[in-house]
Amino acid sequence: MPEAKEFTSEVKPTWCPGCGNYGMAEALRRALAEMGWEKRAFAMVWGIGCHGNGADFYDVQGIHALHGRSLPAASALRLTRPDLDVIVEMGDGDGYGLGMGHFVHTLRRNPSLTILAHNNQVYGLTAGQASPTTDHLSPSVSTPDGVLEEPVNPIGLALAEGATFVARGFAGDIPHLTRLYVDALSHDGLSLVDVFQPCVTWNHHNTFQWFRDRVYRLDETDWNESDRVRAFELSLTTFHDLTCAPETCRVPIGVYYRSSGVPTYEAGVRASANPGWERARQPRDISAILRSLA
Ligand code: SF4
What we know:
Blueprint: H1 20-35, E1 42-46, E2 62-64, H2 70-80, E3 85-91, H3 92-98, H4 100-109, E4 113-119, H5 154-160, E5 165-170, H6 174-186, E6 191-196, H7 208-212, E7 215-217, H8 228-237, E8 251-258, H9 265-271, H10 276-281, H11 287-293
Parallel strand pairs: 1-2, 1-3, 3-4, 4-6, 5-6, 7-8
Antiparallel strand pairs: 5-8
Helix pairs in contact: 1-6, 3-4, 5-8
Bound molecules: iron/sulfur cluster.
């Protein structure tokens, strides 16, 4: 069984010192070791962004996909290589901006993918523009007077679209994040872990200390992980904004919701008596169509 350090490549990370990506990477390596996964038993897929540079920093097999396109690549991999577990890493701009359509449609299919979202609430790699999850009224290099839109709510969206495992983590609490990852990797169906991952270079509002003053753990409350309606309510009422004070603005981390026994997309495809790719293999006579166009 590989140890956590064996998932580290020889390439020195180029992430800024203190970036939340380090905490996420360490938690994932520990979780993989705890799962006992051999390197050839799984694959990772990355989108584009600072998180995507992680493709060079892990010693694993996988695909570094196009911007916002990690989910279709991962879904295709899952369908064509059912022997592999598939982990997707995407950013908030990457997955909730350019890839938003893919995100919503992947959620409703329930493929067996583990999605780890690096949510730093800013476009870090391209120098600090506002992202889909930037707090309302936050100034950024692209919005010097503040963002006018309300941020995307990935937890609420995932719950609304039927995701079967929805969690939120914080890169500053590696042991807790490792536990969330192990739970997500063990889940049969789609699992989303949206992780607040402070960008120390461009987001000077949502810092590690800002989160430390506000996060609390759901597993230390009377939380019921099978109550989807309550989870949805929580996702709506715990949105933070630029001005929220620590005593009134709390940020829950942990498993919001999980359900088991929901059929996966790949199981449905395999059970189909006449799958699309089988139909596509059959020779077809299209001469009548061509004549009609002449
Ligand atoms: Fe991390 Fe931000 Fe630096 Fe990117 S720009 S590596 S997200 S601190």
